[in-house]
Amino acid sequence: MMEILLVGGNGAIGKAMRNEYLSLKNKVTILSRKPVEDDSALMTSHLYDYENPGELNIEEGKKFDLIIFATGHLHNHKYKPEKSIKDIEESALSFSYLINCIAPLCLIKKLSDQIKNNTKIVFLSARVGSISDNNLGGWYAYRMSKAALNMMIKNLSIELGRRYKESIIMGLHPGTVESKLSAPFVSHVNHEVFTPNDSARKLIKVIENLKKQDTGKILDYAGNKIEW
Ligand SMILES: NC(=O)c1ccc[n+]([C@@H]2O[C@H](COP(=O)([O-])OP(=O)(O)OC[C@H]3O[C@@H](n4cnc5c(N)ncnc54)[C@H](OP(=O)(O)O)[C@@H]3O)[C@@H](O)[C@H]2O)c1
Q1: Which end of the chain is least crowded, N or C, by CB within 10 Å?
Q2: In the chain, how long is the greatest CA-to-CA distance?
Q3: With contact defined as beta carbons under 8 Å apart, do 39 and 150 qualify?
Q4: What is the pTM of this model?
Q5: Which residue CA neighbors atom 10 of ligand 1 most closely?
């Protein structure tokens, strides 16, 4: 049985991972913006909003085997992904950086007592955060903030790796997955679109098979490395 912290346990992929890990009899602590509707005795949940974070009320002394960040922002009622430089808005860029990179890093700072020698920390990133894979352009705020997340992951893997020798800190691309985040765009893709459950099962398999040499890397749902 693992002790798992899942940040964003109400999102499409986050919820599917939560259900899968609970069905495998792991203990799951959820951080989410809205209360979680689930009465599993294996689950504890706390409210946590990146825009107004406040205190973290996790039980003192609790150490996690696995910490997953399943949060992310691409669009909301105010901001849409940019098609061109004409669409650039400073506040939209700042907001994407906040949700996709800055707030997760600030949360990691608060979790320093919850990490142990062999904790795995996994961030859901995105293939579009890869600089070498960018052949289409557009989506400035999302692409840039995910590239920044990837740098954060690499940095964190170096620093935490010095103190926690068996730790693995890495990023995962979940594939294109049916969710609120992808809904306006899935009809345009010409590859497979996963259900959240399919993606969650694939991601869990990759997480299970992680080796120390994967720390600092970004892998996709099939375990293949994504170049920077
Ligand atoms: N779906 C895809 O095709 C796809 C592809 C590549 C990468 N990804 C990545 O996968 C991750 C999960 O996305 P998803 O598809 O599951 O989307 P989703 O269903 O929209 O979930 C997004 C998650 O982020 C949380 N979140 C958003 N803004 C937040 C804020 N201000 N404070 C705290 N939490 C916030 C949401 O919380 P609420 O539930 O409270 O809204 C939700 O848990 C993201 O990092 C995304 O970039 C997804």
Answers
A1: N
A2: 51
A3: no
A4: 0.98
A5: 124
| Burial of 222 (C-beta count, 10 Å sphere; 0-12/13-18/19+) | exposed
Pull the structure tokens for residue 177.
Answer: 């997955």
* End-to-end Cα spacing for the chain: 34
Place of tokens 């800055």: 102
Give the pair of three-digit tokens for residue 198.
């399919």
Rounded distance between C-alpha atoms, residue 109 and residue 124, angstroms: 18
φ, ψ of residue 211 to 5 degrees: the values are -120, 160
Pick the closest to residue 36 from 62, 18, 57 (CA basis).
Answer: 18
120: left (phi over 0), alpha (psi -120 to 50) or beta: beta
Inter-CA distances, 199 with 87, 110, 194, Å: 32, 29, 6
72 lines ligand 1 (CB under 6 A): yes
Separation of CA 165 and ligand 1 centre (Å): 30
Is the CB of 200 within 6 Å of ligand 1? Answer: no
- Ordered by start, the domain boundaries in the chain are 3-220
Q: What is the pLDDT of residues 126-166, one digit of tens each?
A: 999 999 999 999 999 999 999 999 999 999 999 999 999 99
Distance CA 57, CA 191 (A): 41
Q: Is the CB of 181 under 6 A from ligand 1?
A: yes
Question: What separation in Å is there between the alpha carbon of 85 and the centre of ligand 1?
Answer: 25
CATH superfamily to which 3-220 belongs:
NAD(P)-binding Rossmann-like Domain (3.40.50.720)
Which tens digits make up the pLDDT trace of 197-218?
999 999 999 999 999 999 999 9
Cβ(45) – ligand 1 distance below 6 Å: no
